[in-house]
Records
---
Amino acid sequence: MTTAAPELLTVREVMTRLKIGRTKVYDLIRTNRLASMKVDGCRRIPEAAIRDFINRGIGEAA
């Protein structure tokens, strides 16, 4: 059984999914609220990091 590799999103894709601006995405990354990695100098955000960020936000609001 094979599992699919996690999808890595660009900053622009994260902007669209979270409906926030570029500066805010980089602020979330800088403050370690959104996990990311660099691939040959390009910033990429795992799709799971987006889900974790949203779930933490929902948990804090409850």
---
Amino acid sequence: MREVLMFSEIPRLLDFSRTGSQAIGYLTVTQNSELPFTIRRVYWTYQVPTDTMRGGHAHHDLKQVVFAVNGQIGLTLEGIRGDKYTFTLNQPDQGLYIPRLYWGAITFSTNAVLMCLASEEYLEADYIREYAEFKILQHVHF
């Protein structure tokens, strides 16, 4: 059973503390208590050609926090209400919270690495892979 959509949830940047220095390097740590959900899966995407657009889908239930642990990552998000957001990630101690029901498009700089903390384990049925189906959800939730 799907939870009721919380319309107050919008994508937002999250800053995480870091320790260290330029001389020795940095360390950033996060725990479930610092996140808007409990981590159920972690994955990373890398070696994406710079002229390739990734994403092209939304999720019914999955929530994510994504990081550019290397390089720069551009994200364009669209909610089922038609609200649009654009973000650039290029600091490993800053993540982007992506609530459920946001269509995403992602670009990568050379050698960029995206790491994702996800609220659910992989489930193909959670994916909305057709944009037309995503747009129909506007009528379902309003």
---
Amino acid sequence: MHVQLFVLSDGETNEGYSFNKAAPIIKSLSVSVNTIGYNAQLEELKKLSTINESATINADNDDVVYQLKQLFNAEL
């Protein structure tokens, strides 16, 4: 079974594990983390998504609905 997470975030870390501590865990579990950034620091979200070759979407774009449809269709 392949686990996928969809995370809507601004990319800011305010509590919990740091990226450097969480990244090896995500990598070893082969969890796909698809990130959706809204008013976000997309570079931080891209780092998280690239661990296991997942997608990052900028929700500030006008075509966000289309991008989300494409992502869900590709993943299902």
